[in-house]
Amino acid sequence: RGDGQQARPRAMSDLYVLLVYLSFFVVGITAPFVISLGYVWGDIFYPQEMSTLVAMFSSSLVMGIGALLAYLAADNRARPRLSMQAFLTILFAAWITLSLTWAVVPGLAYDKWTWAVKAVLVSAFIPFVFRSRVQIEAFLLVVLFALCFHMVPRGLKDIFGGSSYGHNLGLTNNNDLLLESSTLATFSVAMIPIILFMRRHSVLLPKMPWLRNLGATFLVGICIFCAISTFARTALVAFAVVGFFMWLQSRRKIAFAAIALAMVLGFSLATSSSWEARMATTTQYNQEDSALGRILVWKWTLGYVAQHPLGGGFNSYVIDTIAFPSDSGAPGAPGDIVHGKAFHNMYFEVLGEQGIPGLLMFGGIQVLALLYLWRVRRRTRGQPHLLWLHDLSQTLLSALLTVMACANFVGIGYQAIVWYFFVLPVCLREYLHRVERLEKASPMPASAPVRPAMVPFPGVAR
To answer: In the chain, how many H helices and how many E strands?
Structure first.
């Protein structure tokens, strides 16, 4: 087609993305928390990559300032308690900022700090905004639907046989951050339990059961095929963790295992030989250059931190030198010297860049997130009016553990969506605290029916 015919659809898509961006401000006039949803959407959707109009200004900064002002002006109520996780998060943000003073590559360190510190600090702000059931659910739905813009094209192309290793099937040519293959595979699979939760408990989605079942089935299929389309071996880890926890939570474990086995066999027949060959290299870590290189850079990181306990600052991996052993058997790698190999592991990434103190703070944040979810799950067991909260805590526990397991093979320590998973347990914890405080202040008669919508607290019920 002519250039004019191609330019018109591009201009329309640019305008559409800009209108979606502006709509968060418009709706935020009556519901201030929606502007914060717009910030979350931008962190995952990447509107600046989709629209040249949005890329003309600092869209993330504008939305962030708008979210903060909207909160201070019209939504500053029911503030959460200062949790230990919030304290560690702020301390971690201060530490990674301080690490700029001893960074081995100051320029590259500053470049990464500009977006990494933003993700950490915004996560500390999230519990102040998303406090009610509707707000928490809206947060999850925005994360899901923003991810769908990246998952649906890849999933559909894989279903119709258009995927292959090394090909970008997304809406943009970007292959960084969330759009990196292993990262996208991780979160595609981690969203499956959340989709199933929404099918059962959502108060925002249409009530029609047939539509919910159809939509959930479609989205779960998209998540699976998107993960497969990446050809990332991390997807196998994600499938294994999610499948295990879904099996634990199933009431009919034998039937679930039989269905899961049938699905695995079906997918194995449907996937291409190139995908199977790629997955087969998972067990050949000492004969495959990518896997062996990761092990070698992890060893280098341990040695480096032994001499520099405070780490080397952001992007310190660029100074590493990795020597492949001559008897490794990796094709093209024996005897090779590689400089600047990335960490490919969230925990080694934080260790190498922020040292032992940084890793302790980072690990503490995750442990507290798991502990909060476990406590919410335990304290809401057997309470019908909090069934959704019990199931959501269980769902997020599965999703968070999936992310933490896959993070052993991909460096995602400072990605915004990771920190959203870290902070959601705080939102659930604070919601439960407000409900319990209200129930103690005005206990309901034993004979009175309890309904979720009747929780008498404006920041709790809906």
So the answer is: 17, 2
Provide, rounded to the nearest whole percent, the portion of the chain with pLDDT above 70: 82
Q: Which of 148, 142, 131 is closest to 428 using CA atoms?
A: 131
Contact yes or no for 266/274 (Cβ under 8 A) = no
Residues 6+ positions from 157 with CB-CB distance below 8 Å? 163, 169, 229
CA gap 402, 359 in Å, rounded: 19
Distance CA 218, CA 237 (A): 22
**Cβ burial, residue 156 (10 Å; 0-12/13-18/19+):** middle
- Max Cα–Cα distance, the chain, nearest Å: 77
| CA separation for the pair 319, 302 (Å, rounded) | 14
Contacts from 110-119 at CB under 8 Å and sequence distance 24+? 110/314, 111/314, 111/315, 112/314, 112/315, 112/414, 113/314, 115/414, 116/314, 116/414, 117/93, 118/60, 118/64, 118/416, 119/43, 119/414, 119/415, 119/416, 119/418, 119/419
Q: Using 50, 70 and 90 to split pLDDT, how confident is the model at 458?
A: very low
Alpha-helix runs per DSSP H in 208-288: 209-229, 234-249, 253-270, 273-280
Tokens 């389309």 sit on residue: 229
d(CA 179, CA 166): 13
Residue 127 token pair = 């519990």
Task: Report d(CA 92, CA 222) in Å as an integer.
Answer: 36
- 194-198, 233-237, 260-264, 267-271: lowest mean pLDDT where? 267-271
Q: How far apart are CA 60 and CA 177, in angstroms?
A: 15
Distance of CA 264 to the CA centre of its chain: 25
Q: Tell me the pLDDT tens digit for each residue of 99-121.
A: 999 999 999 999 999 999 999 99
| Cross-strand bridge partners of residue 322 | 338
Pinpoint the alpha helices (H) of 130-233: 133-159, 181-190, 192-201, 209-229
CB 292 within 8 A of CB 267: no
Q: In this predicted model, which residue has the larger pLDDT, 281 or 383?
A: 383
Mean pLDDT of 207-220: 92
Q: Is it the case that residue 344 has pLDDT exceeding 70? A: yes
Alpha-carbon span 388 to 232, nearest angstrom = 33
- Enter the pTM of the model: 0.86
What pLDDT does residue 251 have?
77
Instruction: For residue 209, give both structure tokens.
Output: 């059961």
